[in-house]
Amino acid sequence: MSTFSPLSWFQAATSAPNCRTALSSSPSLDDAVRDVVHQVGRRGNADLALVFVSTGYASDLPRLLPMLQTSLHARHWIGCAGGGVVGTQPNGSASELEQVPALSVTLLSLAGAEIKTSILRPDQLPDLDGASQNWQDWVGIHPDDSRSQIVLIDPTCRSINDLISGLDYAYPRAEKIGGIAAPHNAPHGSLLIGNRVVTGAVVCSIGGDWFLDTVVAQGCRPIGPVFAIEQVQSNILLELNDGTTKASPVACLQRVLANLSEPEREQVRHSLFLGIERRDLQLPSAGVRGKGSAFLVRNLIGVDPINGAVAVAERMRAGQNVQFHLREAEASRQGALALLTQRMTEAAAPITFGLLMACFGRGQGLFGTPNGDINLARSLMPNLPVAGVFCNGEIGPVAGTTHLHGYTACWGLLRHAPVSKLNDP
């Protein structure tokens, strides 16, 4: 019989991943802090604390992290303010709380994880034409230590697209998820890191044996055929080709509208978008996916009635494929459900936690009922603890490249998958 070692038993017990969650909607921040502390308990030292708070507490933000840290202990703290929060109570019930004071706290203990956080100053961005090493030095995180990144950006930040492109340039293998925090009138930023409130941007890098598997649900369905771009000037579409006929974008749209039902034509008045094909030219991140293509959905921002040109909120190039899209609740449900189902079947690594970064325009405004995105995820993963925030713009990958989105639900599914196992033949 082997000798029993209390120390060995204790080390094995504490090495198991642990996720403690709390959610409060108390009108007072002091009461909300006491509430979440009671829910998660004072035990243990977590590796990462995620804190999401509604702008209803905006004036009290500088007090939040110091108050939490008098009772709760974690090596790294990060979060932001949002138009609403997502969280899970200790009894397992999860909620999306919109337009009310709310505080969501998640404490993650992840054996084998390498976690680092960094404050970024986007007014000091390195040159995108320079070496990637310059970006890595600026962020302060080595690419070998970063399998995934949570990127949170203050609403006053400039050069957001350049920042996102630079992070992709410096960390091509790391999938990124995040969003733009909500604006408020208090004289400080909207980002939480360490024990303070900051502006600019913050990054939480996750590496070692853990990564965030990302799902970006854009909430639209395609209508009409796929067109190839014949002529374009920057973000102005001038001519499209459906394989047989060349015509202006407006003429192509009129043909699409002719085949829609009357309710669909009414939707076009306020929910029409353009999908721009993106192809994955990067290496698969986290060792779980390969190359592919997808449509990046973008707003239509103007029409020239004289020549039929259409302005789009994205630069394009000749030869790219595009397709018109409609945003609607049922498309959002089915699209998110299909993507989450696919992601669950693609990888066997267990999911410990779900991070949701959702647009202000989703929630009850899109679905008509509370907890629309959470209910979709939990129909597949009934016991999954979730947390997150309603953003002013969401960050997530499409076909291997990170983009800033609108109207999307970006999921980060936290998985345990040791690198050594991924590299096994």
How far apart are the first and last residues' alpha carbons, in Å? 36 Å
Order of adjacent strands in the largest pleated sheet: 1-6-2-3-10-11
Biggest sheet statistics? 6 strands, mixed
- Coarse morphology: globular
Instruction: Say how many strands there are.
Output: 25
Domains (count): 2
Mean pLDDT: 89
Beta content: 35-45%
Q: Count helical runs.
A: 11
User: Which structural category fits the helices and strands?
Assistant: alpha+beta
Low-confidence stretches: 1-14, 281-291
From the alpha-carbon coordinates, what is the Rg to the nearest angstrom? 22 Å
Give helix % range: 10-25%
What is the topology?
Blueprint: H1 6-14, E1 18-24, H2 29-40, E2 46-54, H3 61-69, E3 74-82, E4 84-88, E5 94-98, E6 103-109, E7 113-120, H4 132-139, E8 148-153, H5 160-170, E9 175-180, E10 191-193, E11 196-198, E12 201-208, E13 210-217, E14 220-233, E15 236-241, E16 246-247, H6 249-258, H7 262-271, E17 272-279, E18 293-304, E19 309-312, E20 321-327, H8 329-346, E21 351-359, H9 363-367, H10 372-380, E22 386-391, E23 394-398, E24 401-405, E25 409-416, H11 419-422
Parallel strand pairs: 2-3, 8-9, 21-22
Antiparallel strand pairs: 1-6, 2-6, 3-10, 4-5, 4-22, 7-12, 8-12, 9-23, 10-11, 13-25, 14-15, 14-20, 15-16, 15-19, 17-18, 17-20, 18-19, 21-25, 23-24
